[in-house]
Amino acid sequence: MPNLWRLAGTFAVKEAAFKALALPKGDWHLLEVRHDPEGKPSLAFALEYDSRHILSCDVSISHSGGYVVACVVALVRR
């Protein structure tokens, strides 16, 4: 089950990121969810996406009782 939770967490983060950053719908390849050695999630953007306006991006994922939630907080230059 942990692999399924990780996959669900990845999709939850991507959905939260797309909403926070107003990314075009359907371009799921624009970002990748990565984890550091301690398990902390982060976002990496595809080379073809101009992410210079994104100053910082924080990610949080939580799993509990069969549910997965994610939050992305982004500081962007408009």
Fold blueprint:
Layout: H1 2-21, E1 31-35, E2 41-45, E3 54-64, E4 67-76
Antiparallel strand pairs: 1-2, 3-4
Tell me about this structure:
There is one protein chain. The chain has 78 residues and is of the alpha+beta class. 26% of the residues lie in helices and 40% in strands. The strands form 2 sheets. A two-stranded antiparallel ribbon has the order 1-2. The mean pLDDT is 91.
Fraction of residues in helix: 25-40%
Over the alpha carbons, how many angstroms does the gyration radius reach? 13 Å
Query: Which structural class matches the secondary elements?
Result: alpha+beta
Largest sheet: 2 strands, antiparallel
Which key phrases capture this entry?
two-stranded antiparallel sheet; 78 residues; 1 helix
Can I get a quick summary?
The protein has 78 residues and is of the alpha+beta class. Helices cover 26% and strands 40% of the residues.
